[in-house]
C-alpha cells in the first residue's frame, strides 16, 4: 500500500529504490507524468529512471530534494538523485553518509560542482562547462573489460577524480562513470545527463542498468527484456475501412486470421489486437447491404452495431463487390485466442467521432480524417455532453467483455494517436495498464508514466538498434497491410525483426505482468537463494517469464527458491555467459 511522506510524494514503503525528483517533473497530484510526445532530457530525468526501474522489477519511492532524510530508510538499497546535483545540500549529504555507515547503499548522481557537499562525498567534481563527445565506450565488470561503439556521439563532462575514487566506465578513455566506496556503500558519479545519453544511444540505458546490478555487490534480480518485441495490430472491427476514402480495404476473414495465427505459432509469438467493438452505420442502403447476427437490418444513420455480429456487402461504395465479414473475423480471432496466440485490446469503441449522427449527416464524412478520430480534442465536446456511462472507453470495455470475455483489456490504443488528459484519466479509472502510442505510457502507482525510451516503430522498420537499451520495443501495424499484401507481409516482417535481434515476440498481457511485478533476490536464513515476486495484481503470465540474477560479488547459484503469494517452487538457474544467471518464472507459480 502506498503511503505519503513529506512533500506529498510516495514514501519508501519498503521499496528498494528512492528516486529524488524535482516537483515540476513529478507533481504529486497529477495522474499523468509526461505528455506522450517528445520532451527535453532535462524535463524527464526522473521519469526515465522510474520507467527503467519499473521494467527491471524494482520498487521505487519518490522524494523531493529537501525530504531525502525523511524517506531514506534501512530498506533503501539505491538512492538515485535525478535532479541538479548542485541542489543536494549538506543536510541531505549527511543523511546519506549516515545511512551508508549503517547498511549497504548505492547512490547515483550526476557530477556536482567543485566544492559542493555532493562532490566531497563522491570524490568527483566538474568545474568547467566544457563537454567532450565520443562514441567509444568501455567499462569493466566481474574482472572483464567490455567495449562498444555508440551509434551516436555521447556528450560528457570533464571529471576531476580525487583519491579513493575509481573509474568504472570511460568514453574515449576519459572518465565517464566513477565509483567511490563509502562505509558499506558506493557513490556512482555520472559525467553525463542520463536522459540525453539515452537519446544518443540505447546502450547508455543498458549501461546504467548494468551499473545498478553490479556496483553495490549485493544480490540482484531483474526482468530480462533484451530482444523483446511487443506485437500490436490496429483497426480490426472498425467501420472506418468501409466509409473513409483514405483507408478503404477488405476486412480480414476468419481464414485470414487462421493464417495470421499460424505465422504467430511458427515463431512462438503472441499478438495484441487493437479491436473496435462498435460498427457505425452511415444509413445509406444504396451503398451496401448490412446484416447483423444473420439478419438484414434497417439502415439508420449513426446507429452502432456490435462489430462481431456484422456482415456488410459493399454494393456501390468504396469497394463495390467486397464482402466485409466481421462475424467471420470475430470467429477467427476467437480461434487465435483459444490457441494462446494473443488477445484483444481496446482501439476505441468505434474509432470514429463520438457524435455519430453528426458524422452521418456531414457532407465530408467520407473524406475528412477528423471524423475518424474518437478520443482527441475535437471529440472532447461530444464526449462531455454524454453521461459518463456512455463514454466511448466505458462502452468499448463493456463490449469487449461481452464478446470476448476473460480479463479486462490491458492496453488502450487511441485512434490516430489522439487523446486528452480526461481520456487518460478515464482509462486509469477503468484499470488500463498501458496507453500505446509511438511512446508507451505505463501505469505506475495509479498514474500513467510516459516513456520516451519505449518506442513503437512500424513493423516494416526492423533494426537492431531498437534493442540496444534492453527495454521492450512495440512493433505496430494495421490489418490493412495484411488485407492488401497478404499474410506473407506479416511473415516477412517478423522474420526481419528476428534477424535484427528479436528473441521474444510477446503481447501487452505478458508485458503487464512484468510492469506490475516487483522482484527481490536475497539469501534467506540458512543460505538459500530466494526470489520473491510480489505486486502482480493477480496477473498470471501466459508463458514463462525470464529473470536475470546476480549473487553477491557476481556469484551465480545453480538454483533458487521462487516465492509468490500462492506457491514456493525451485527454479533452475543457467549461466548466461555474461556474469549473470537466467531463470524462468513459470505461469503455474503465479496461479491461485
Q: Strand sequence of the main sheet, in spatial order?
A: 3-1-4-5-12-11-10-7-8
Indicate the percent of residues in helices: 10-25%
Number of domains: 3
| CATH topology type of the largest domain | TIM Barrel
In terms of quaternary structure, what is this? single chain
The description of the largest β-sheet is: 9 strands, mixed
β content, as a range? 25-35%
Radius of gyration: 26 Å
Label the CATH architecture of the largest domain. Alpha-Beta Barrel
- Which CATH class of the largest domain? Alpha Beta
End-to-end gap: 21 Å
Shape: elongated
Q: What is the count of DSSP helices, taking H or I runs of 4+ residues? A: 16
User: SS-based structural class?
Assistant: alpha/beta
- Determine the mean pLDDT: 93
Q: What is the CATH H-level superfamily of the largest domain?
A: Glycoside hydrolase/deacetylase
> How many beta-strand elements?
35
Q: Can you tell me the residue ranges where pLDDT is under 50 for at least 5 consecutive residues? A: 1-13
Q: What can you see in these coordinates?
A:
It contains 16 helices and 35 strands. With 592 residues, it is an alpha/beta fold. The chain folds into three domains: 213 residues, Rossmann fold; 236 residues, Glycoside hydrolase/deacetylase (TIM Barrel, Alpha-Beta Barrel); 73 residues, no CATH class. The longest helix has 13 residues.
Task: Break the fold down into its secondary structure elements and pairings.
Blueprint: E1 17-20, E2 32-33, H1 45-56, E3 60-63, H2 68-71, E4 78-81, H3 90-102, E5 106-110, H4 117-122, E6 124-125, E7 131-141, E8 144-157, E9 160-161, E10 165-171, E11 174-182, E12 185-190, H5 194-200, H6 202-214, E13 220-223, E14 228-234, H7 240-243, H8 254-266, E15 271-275, E16 278-280, E17 288-292, E18 295-296, E19 304-306, E20 310-314, E21 323-325, H9 326-338, E22 342-346, H10 356-361, H11 380-384, H12 392-404, E23 411-412, H13 421-429, E24 434-436, E25 439-444, E26 447-455, E27 473-478, H14 479-485, H15 487-499, E28 504-506, H16 508-516, E29 518-523, E30 529-534, E31 545-550, E32 559-563, E33 568-572, E34 574-575, E35 581-585
Amino acid at each position: 500500500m502506498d503511503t505519503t511522506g513529506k512533500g506529498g510524494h510516495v514514501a519508501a514503503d519498503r521499496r528498494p529504490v528512492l528516486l529524488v525528483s524535482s516537483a515540476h517533473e513529478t507533481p504529486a497530484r497529477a495522474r499523468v507524468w509526461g505528455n506522450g510526445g517528445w520532451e527535453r532530457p532535462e524535463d524527464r530525468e526522473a521519469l526515465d529512471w522510474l520507467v527503467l526501474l519499473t521494467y527491471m522489477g524494482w520498487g521505487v519511492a519518490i522524494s523531493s530534494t529537501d525530504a531525502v532524510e525523511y524517506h531514506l530508510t534501512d530498506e533503501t538499497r539505491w538512492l538515485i538523485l535525478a535532479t541538479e546535483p548542485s541542489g543536494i545540500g549538506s543536510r541531505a549529504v549527511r543523511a546519506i553518509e549516515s545511512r551508508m555507515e549503517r547498511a549497504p547503499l548505492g547512490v547515483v548522481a550526476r557530477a556536482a560542482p567543485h566544492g559542493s557537499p555532493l562532490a566531497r562525498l563522491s570524490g568527483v567534481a566538474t568545474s568547467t562547462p566544457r563537454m567532450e563527445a565520443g562514441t567509444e565506450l568501455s567499462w569493466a565488470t566481474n574482472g572483464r573489460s567490455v567495449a562498444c561503439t555508440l551509434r551516436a556521439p555521447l556528450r560528457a563532462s570533464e571529471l576531476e577524480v580525487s583519491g579513493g575514487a575509481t573509474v568504472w566506465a570511460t568514453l574515449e578513455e576519459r572518465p565517464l562513470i566513477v565509483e567511490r566506496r563509502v562505509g558499506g556503500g558506493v557513490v556512482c558519479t555520472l559525467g553525463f545527463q542520463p536522459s540525453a545519453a539515452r537519446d544518443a544511444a540505447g546502450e547508455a540505458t543498458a549501461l546504467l542498468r548494468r551499473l545498478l546490478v553490479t556496483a553495490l555487490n549485493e544480490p540482484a534480480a531483474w526482468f530480462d527484456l533484451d530482444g523483446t518485441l511487443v506485437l500490436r495490430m490496429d483497426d480490426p472491427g472498425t467501420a472506418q475501412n468501409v466509409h473513409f476514402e483514405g483507408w478503404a480495404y477488405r476486412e480480414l476473414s476468419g481464414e485470414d486470421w487462421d493464417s495470421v495465427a499460424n505465422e504467430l505459432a511458427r515463431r512462438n509469438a503472441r499478438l495484441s489486437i487493437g479491436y473496435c467493438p462498435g460498427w457505425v452505420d452511415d444509413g445509406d442502403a444504396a451503398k451496401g447491404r448490412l446484416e447483423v447476427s444473420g439478419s438484414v437490418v434497417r439502415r439508420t444513420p449513426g446507429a452502432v452495431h456490435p462489430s462481431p455480429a456484422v456482415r456488410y456487402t459493399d454494393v456501390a461504395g468504396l469497394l463495390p463487390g467486397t464482402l466485409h465479414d466481421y462475424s467471420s473475423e470475430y470467429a477467427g480471432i476467437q480461434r487465435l485466442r483459444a490457441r494462446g496466440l494473443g488477445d484483444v485490446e481496446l482501439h476505441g469503441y468505434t474509432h470514429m467521432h463520438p457524435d455519430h449522427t453528426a458524422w452521418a449527416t456531414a457532407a465530408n464524412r467520407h473524406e475528412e480524417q477528423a471524423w475518424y478520430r474518437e478520443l482527441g480534442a475535437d471529440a472532447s465536446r461530444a464526449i462531455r455532453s454524454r453521461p459518463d456511462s456512455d463514454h466511448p472507453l466505458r462502452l468499448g470495455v463493456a463490449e469487449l467483455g461481452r464478446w470476448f470475455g476473460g480479463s479486462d483489456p490491458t492496453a488502450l490504443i487511441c485512434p490516430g494517436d489522439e487523446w486528452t488528459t480526461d481520456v487518460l484519466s478515464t482509462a486509469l479509472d477503468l484499470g488500463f495498464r498501458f496507453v500505446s502510442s509511438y511512446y508507451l505510457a505505463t501505469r505506475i502507482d495509479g498514474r500513467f508514466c510516459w516513456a520516451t525510451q519505449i518506442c513503437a516503430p512500424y513493423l516494416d522498420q526492423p533494426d537492431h538498434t531498437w534493442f540496444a537499451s534492453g527495454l521492450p520495443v512495440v512493433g505496430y501495424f494495421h490489418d490493412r497491410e495484411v488485407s492488401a499484401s497478404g499474410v506473407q507481409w506479416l511473415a516477412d516482417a517478423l522474420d526481419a525483426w528476428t534477424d535484427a535481434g528479436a528473441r521474444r515476440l510477446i503481447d501487452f498481457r505478458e508485458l503487464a505482468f512484468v510492469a506490475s511485478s516487483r522482484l527481490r533476490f536475497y539469501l534467506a536464513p540458512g543460505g538459500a537463494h530466494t526470489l520473491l515476486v510480489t505486486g502482480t495484481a493477480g496477473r498470471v503470465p501466459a508463458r514463462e517469464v525470464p529473470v536475470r540474477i546476480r549473487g553477491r560479488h557476481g556469484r551465480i547459484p545453480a538454483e533458487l527458491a521462487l516465492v509468490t503469494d500462492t506457491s514456493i517452487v525451485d527454479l533452475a538457474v543457467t549461466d548466461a555467459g555474461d556474469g549473470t544467471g537466467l531463470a524462468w518464472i513459470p505461469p503455474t507459480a503465479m496461479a491461485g
